[in-house]
Design brief:
12 strands; six-stranded mixed β-sheet; DNA-binding; 355 residues; elongated; homodimer; 14 helices; Rossmann fold
Chain lengths: 355, 355
Amino acid sequence: MDLGKNIRIKDIAKLAGVSVGTVDRVIHNRGRVSQEALKKVTSVMEQIDYKPNLIARTLGSNKNYRIAAIIPNPEQDPYWSQSNKGILQAQAEWTQYGINIDLHVFDLFNKESFITTVQEAIATKPDGIVVAPIFYHEALPVFDLLKTEQIPYVLFNTNIPEATPLSFIGQNLYQSGKVAAQLLHFGQENPGTFAVLHMDEDIQDSLHLVEKEKGFREYFSSNGKAKFEIMALNLNPSDSAFETQLNELVNNPNLKGIFVTTSKGSAVAASFLEKHSKKHIRLIGYDLLDENLKYLKTGTIDFLIHQNPKRQAFLGISHLVNHLMFKKSMPQQELFPLEVITEENLGSYLNSGLH
Amino acid sequence: MDLGKNIRIKDIAKLAGVSVGTVDRVIHNRGRVSQEALKKVTSVMEQIDYKPNLIARTLGSNKNYRIAAIIPNPEQDPYWSQSNKGILQAQAEWTQYGINIDLHVFDLFNKESFITTVQEAIATKPDGIVVAPIFYHEALPVFDLLKTEQIPYVLFNTNIPEATPLSFIGQNLYQSGKVAAQLLHFGQENPGTFAVLHMDEDIQDSLHLVEKEKGFREYFSSNGKAKFEIMALNLNPSDSAFETQLNELVNNPNLKGIFVTTSKGSAVAASFLEKHSKKHIRLIGYDLLDENLKYLKTGTIDFLIHQNPKRQAFLGISHLVNHLMFKKSMPQQELFPLEVITEENLGSYLNSGLH
DNA sequence: ATAATTCATGTGTTCGAAAACATGTAAGAA
DNA sequence: TTCTTACATGTTTTCGAACACATGAATTAT
């Protein structure tokens, strides 16, 4: 197998009794090859397990690729600011290989803005697009456009299976709800109430939240957990009744734990728990936002589930690069592990690179 | 900055008014360059932020590298079998780039075998070595040999700072002990006992175990945890008293939880808990061995801390490749996150790739 | 003074694949 | 027949850096 040199196109040509040009045409389906020659080459190719030298291939086809990255405005939300960091990191990593990444941001609370931003991105005729399509329904038509334009695209954060992307990078949200449930339930002997808290300006990415709640409820619907009551609340921080509702919740004497489904929400819930000295009520949320970490360290937040937005964005771009530049095939879906963050293992996550 | 083309050696040569050969000599410190020329080139290089095209560089210096990977015999222990998988994966990934990986295994329970295996590996004059030096003291002399032989090496699993490797891949074991403690303690109101269980044929990698215990104890020595008693036990499965000791432990009415510091041990402990119907006693161990997963799924093991041996080995080799082939500088130390595995998030870890 | 040596510097080839380019041959049109 | 046109096939250049080699000048030895 690995006896000496690797097989080169030249070798295949010699074995098949044709020129390198013909082999090249066969490999890339460029046509202009006789049946006869094609048969000879393919038969040699099947015998020998030809693996193109990706280094040489990349150098030879000295292309520069432009990738458009589309995310919500990072300034509107710390979660998306993390995604942005992942994009910047990808830029730093790939720029020397002739990859240019153009960032296009849209308004987190404006569906219309999403569509126009994607259209703008397409108009620049990029070689590939990486996008976090948080507006599910609105996204569908633009993917048709991408398909007719023949632009390969990778989704992250939110999956849209109908869009049949090159690849999706994200998490199993349903399962993450189950993880949250398990952690809230862990070691709880006595009956009580658990609350699912959807806290959001808007219910734009409501699909996310619904999935999480489903998983959460599913966990408690299984054997021997009937003694626990599950309640779900939709709270809008800019709503006038917001404080009252939250106060009422944390003062519920039966309340054993809260599962906050949005990344920003857990810090808000934590502040209420601290204010009412209800730190014994368990709290679990999402993501390593600075605010969240503060409460994780004081013990008010017990666990955070890490969605790793930075890495999602980074990997999304890397997948696209591997597809465009190295012609590598990618897993059609890459679901990140559901990382459980505690006060004690937090440091190990903050210090570790991406890799 | 990124206006159009990247700077090539040719461009630097033109700007400095010399030939590409001279620039090449400057870049690689090959000498044979006049003070004058050197000054011109370096000044240009400082102005322009030259980033060599790694693709072209790799193709140009058409070297084949041989890397020796040294680990305990995978057949002796499922943990090291995982490491082996990481090595195989690295092989699959890098073989097309002209990287050859030779596996050298030693006897997990034989220090002498470790030394001779390393010496054998060195005798093959590899371009780099990746090694899991589980025998701390025995390892020290062989690293002197590696230094005099000028062979770069990467450590994983066990760190030996005195060896000043190119890079170390592993985990903060002390901190992992704290994580274990936190999880056992989580939600525990009443006083009780927690046991640290070192279960091993030999105490070869005792340093590991000591570190973990230290962290565990440290956690409980902090504010308000005086009501918990910590006990530590060294148990040898091949010892005649083994069963008795373990039976005694699990029947201790004060026992709230067990922290098993070895990867194989937690399944053994779990089997005893199940036998005595003591599943309510919390159990936490290390690593995703098949046996462990079985008990994680039945709920006897509550948490596993994932040391990710597969990924450690894979990354160790990748670091070396980046150093040898791409001349990239590597972080001198890469500590993996302390991943907490539960029944519910296990699947997401098993399905996810390495990357 | 001439050959030998040293050393700065420039030129050319190589890596393997991609892609532009050149040649050759057969079928159809004028 | 001769000129296109189409298409199979072979040859050459290119990518950017590494490295072997060639050149030419200054120094040293004889």
